[in-house]
Design brief:
The chain has one helix and 17 strands. The chain has 228 residues and is mainly beta. The strands form four sheets. The protein has a five-stranded antiparallel beta sheet, with no helix packed on it. A five-stranded antiparallel beta sheet has the order 7-4-9-2-10, with no helix packed on it. The longest helix has 17 residues. The protein is globular and about 50 Å long. The chain starts with a helix and ends with a strand.
Length: 228
């Protein structure tokens, strides 16, 4: 009887050693410090002699959807979906744009919009004249001075999404402005630090002393928008 008990105990102790290596818990890989994804890169046209400035607005919906009747405007507008979706009708065709994607509505083109409930859309464009009603959105930001562009040269609008793991510091981002999607971004320039939380627009410059940091405990996501 005693020998049988010893045998059973020995088998139980040996079971962990007999398990295959794949049954052991694999270590969690460290997060990627920085991820950069190009979300949009579309031709916008030739810069005028007067230069361009950026104008950025935001349109949000609550429990009810929002629609706009057929409209036409003198400039091309870009719509980037932060949350939810938007439906754009152009030339009889309707396109649904989901969160993280963008669409350009050409100038002098009849179009319609539908914004479903619980949606958030950024509306922006470069232009050489006042922005008026910002395509019926709420004004968020306008650049102070004309962009450093060559008159008559064709430019494309590019949107890149950046994801910064906690502790990432001294990052530079290409573009003229950015928008924080998630977390709190710290911008340091010339010894001065400013913080920008989700839902805020911040200016980007070509100054080498301007760096972006994630000094918090959670990831930071933002988009950088610019002409190139």
């Amino acid at each position: 009887m005693r020998k049988t008990v010893y045998l059973i105990v020995g088998l139980l102790l040996a079971i962990p050693l007999m398990l295959p290596a794949c049954a052991k818990t694999a270590p969690t890989p460290p997060p990627t410090p920085t991820q950069i994804v190009t979300k949009f890169n579309v031709s916008y046209g030739a810069a005028p002699a007067a230069g361009w400035k950026w104008g950025v607005a935001e349109l949000t919906t609550g429990a009810d959807e929002r629609t706009t009747s057929t409209a036409r405007h003198g400039f091309a507008w870009i719509f980037y979906v932060v949350r939810g979706s938007t439906e754009v009708g152009i030339a009889g065709e309707k396109k649904v744009v989901s969160a993280g994607d963008a669409v350009l509505v050409p100038a002098q083109q009849d179009h319609t919009h539908r914004y479903p409930p619980q949606s958030q859309v950024l509306i922006f464009r470069p232009a050489d004249r006042p922005f008026g009603d910002f395509h019926q959105g709420n004004r968020l930001w306008e650049s102070d001075a004309s962009l450093a562009l060559n008159a008559g040269q064709n430019y494309s609008t590019r949107i890149r999404e950046y994801t910064l793991a906690p502790g990432v510091a001294n990052l530079t981002a290409e573009g003229q402005w950015g928008y924080v999607l998630e977390g709190t971004l710290t911008l340091r320039e010339g010894g001065t630090a400013t913080t920008h939380q989700a839902g805020k627009v911040f200016a980007l410059t070509s100054n080498a002393s301007q760096v972006l940091n994630n000094e918090g405990p959670t990831p930071v996501r933002f988009i950088a928008v610019g002409l190139h």
